[in-house]
């Protein structure tokens, strides 16, 4: 059943793209919840560019996940990206993301049990470009992030917003080269609806030669509906989630 | 009678004046924008700690600024702190609107009976629209007799919700006394943008203002930016604006008793300025984003939707503590609960600005089954006096309604009786009913609906 539960696997990169009409917050929350609930020692590093911790906490509350507890026990690390980027942006430096990279590296280096899996979530790489961070720096940062995640055996999820559907921008093209899987969240072509919030497709990235998960093309995309507690997935054309 | 007692909720801090909890989630506190229909679109109101961006791409009108004026007026009326970020804040405030009866527009006995005031306001608006005279004459089929009138917008607030959203009157200016008293209480901090790096500077000063007011009182703060990036701000690039909106939102999250409302001037709303996907980017960087696309210089749109002044496009809706924005469930205007989303439009009447559902007229203009042209055609032809004669039957009926959710009822479309068109070619002959518009020379219309209605009637 969608979404596949063991995605992403450690040292793999999952790229999640979404549109304004069909935001992918719910997928991130779902992945976070699944990861934290999996085992008592699973760690997570949440790098948030746009959203603050309060929202993560309140949405997680609805699916019975206590983030405050995880924060205290150091299992969850929340990094406010802009706090590390804005001073560098103000000085108009060419590499404003360097400080952020070092912080993330520190987090991953922390000693932990070898068996535990770590999950790194970068919420929103697109906003960095919109705010004036040089493109070259963003791409370098993305590649470096993938490299350290592979090194420390952590799975990485990167979220990117698509503002020009149909015409991939530079960041998207580079991210597609880096990722192992690409989860594509897009809206219905007919606009907003109450019963179907959007559709999700799963593509294989450039880093995979043989996909282990069943790929879902856009034409057969799984539809979802957001509810108070999370999301419900159903195949298109069926009424199982709606009726 | 069981001994089970309802557990009282833990003592919550009292809500700041002019706010209430969102129906969708108890953690969210919402405040009114001053326009009841816009509040409905947002899901009850604008949540504190959220930012609302109003795009007004039409260069010939100022509806975006009008929304901001409502926002500021509502803030002052509720006793909240209103921070105006503008090159000329005094001018902006002086131009703001106010409730009727307390200043310029004399209206006796209105303060005692708010429901009648809203009804009289509604009655005046109906006079403007001249729709009421037609309503009573139509013989409704028996099965529809019991139904209420079709409503295209939410009713304006009744007396119970007076403190949350006041009924503002566009003809009333904000009295000097109100501004003076608010200023003396320190409730109107003003921030004037400087030309050199205005964005960072303003964020810095907003942050100072908010941290100060945090320690002072338990008042909600509204930040009004009537023209972000206007010429006084200097030359802003799209990255500057993105950075500003992003930082403003982060600031609002840090001081959750504040909310912000921003209007972007027309030249900055275009993709020519921001690049492809600009409106989408703005939607991602703010919590709520709405475009008021006024018809302005487009005569064909004005003719097609003669009862409205522009279309409303919703890009983003606030959901500060939930996955789903509460508007999806609670907005009657958007109508997501029933089926697909409604098209929305706005119109600026003599006394107020309202957001309505937009309904297209029957397609085709004149087909073989119709013997009379639609009223749209009449509006174009008749010229002077009938500019506000409306598309059949859809009038914004506002009652001093006490229900919080408007019940949508179906009303039969009214067919105006008037002179029929002269058949252009090979149409079955139509009967000629009596007409009250004898003078109107009705244009010949063939069965298909022309895209560009003729502008010049020779």
Characterization of the model:
The complex is a heterodimer of chains A (243) and B (458). Chain A has helices spanning 25-38, 53-62, 67-72, 81-90, 98-109, 126-130, 135-151, 170-178, and strands at residues 13-18, 43-48, 76-80, 118-123, 154-161, 181-186, 198-204, 222-226, 231-234. With 243 residues, chain A is α/β, with parallel strands linked by helices. Chain A has a 9-stranded mixed β-sheet, with helices on both faces. In chain A, α5 (98-109) runs parallel beside α7. With 458 residues, chain B is of the alpha/beta class. In chain B, the strands form 3 sheets. Chain B has a 9-stranded mixed β-sheet with strand order 8-5-9-10-4-11-12-13-14, sandwiched between helices. Chain B has a 3-stranded antiparallel β-sheet with strand order 1-2-3, with no helix packed on it. The model of chain B is unreliable at 103-118, 129-134, 365-371, 373-405 and 416-440 (pLDDT under 50). The A-B interface holds A 19-20, 25-26, 29, 50, 52, 54-55, 58-59, 62, 82, 86, 89-90, 126-127, 130-132, 161, 163-164, 167, 190-194, 197, 226-228, 230-231 and B 25, 27, 200, 237-240, 242-243, 246-247, 249-250, 253-254, 256, 276-278, 280-281, 283-285, 315-316, 320-324, 328, 336-341.
